[in-house]
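Problem: given the chain below (269 residues), write out its structure.
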Amino acid sequence: MPPLYRDAAIVLRTHKLGEADRIITMLTRNHGKKRAVAKGVRKTKSKFGARLEPGMVVDIQLHEGRNLDVVTQVDLLASYGDAIAQDYPSYTACAAMLETADRLCEDSDRVVAHFNLLAGALAALAQRQIPAHLVLDAYLVRSVATAGWTPSFIDCAGCGDPGPQRAFNLAVGGAVCPQCRPPGSTAPMPETFVLMDALLRGDWIAVAATSDDARRQSSNLIAAYVQWHLEHGVRSLRHVDRGDYTVVARSTPPATPAEPAPHDVPPAS
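Solution.
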């Protein structure tokens, strides 16, 4: 009989299979991205259908199959769905994060880091201490950094010349000096560089001190940078409701989206 294994997982997306089943695409903490069949979950009497919705953090047991694994047991670790679904900007930001994770983690060798980053970002969306668009931008820039494409927002990404620099180029890898600046580079406001660097580092006090214009520029550049490296558009980004760009300054920073979600995730068996 094929073996059973257990892991913590975040549901990324689902689609229907047959009359009552679903195929679940998930990011597991120790086994990477997995696709599995959840049998009978679309029936009204399903015991764990509601636990296998996008954005759910679960402890899942899987039966290893030839083509697709089969879900045999699901326990809920963290349900952020209700809190996120009640706020449209959070809902659209969540959709963009899940789609980005789905694409970034296809062949990633940094599974645990990606899992913790996404779990922490979902927790931050649910807590609503930070505006959803800033949680999204922080997640996006950290996710590409985790994947190995860390952008430079201060020193020149081409030659390493100490910054701050005044131009930005996607292909070079971020900020560029006048000597390394290719045609077509953009020239964001200096404050935009400060904001993007603060999002990468998780400095929420610095983020709170930035202007709406800097946040708009930062959102556009970060989205462009992510999609450049994915070599594919993230469709959910076009639907993100960024709403009000203001954020209340705090004397102490809230929990950052880079931290793992506040629950006890069991090890794989």
